[in-house]
Amino acid sequence: MLLLLVLFVRLVWRRQWIAGWLYGNVLVLFAVVLVIGGAAAWELQSFRSLAVSEPVLKVKVSQLQPALYRLTLDQAGKRRIFDVSGDLWELDVQVLRWKGLSAAIGLEDGYRLHQLRGRHLGLEEQQRTIAHNTHPLHGSPSWRDLWFWLERCDRPVLVESDAFTLAYMPLADEAEFAVRIGVTGLIPEPLNAAAMRALRP
Asked: pTM for the whole thing?
């Protein structure tokens, strides 16, 4: 009889311990989901809608010395200045595309400026300057960069990553460009005579 009582007490204690362990793990999992969801929501705020009609960026080029230029970027009134060397400049944009249920309920695809680069036509100069000729345009570290992790996901369910690049844009003194964005890529638009001359073949 005493043996049965001991076995019963041990069984009840084990069940309580298991229940507590499961409850604790559920709480930890819930907290992790909240943190990931909060980080993703914070990242989404840095993306703008692709459904825009006005230019997403204006770029003004000023020559400082031979093969060295200052680019002034104006995005919705926010101005940033970068110095690049070389013959050309390039712009990378990160894109998020909603799919499945997310697209069905009307969520709009978004974009975020990623990086600005200067490029030399000479291969040796390009390799020598590439490290300091690339400028990030957003401050998200990779550990919470939603686009970064989606890019490494084989089969995203609700949203997938995409990227646009505006390449081989000439570095020409006093040239001014507008950059428009569409569903398939970036479209440069010359804003003055210097830009039009630079774009001529």
From this structure: 0.78
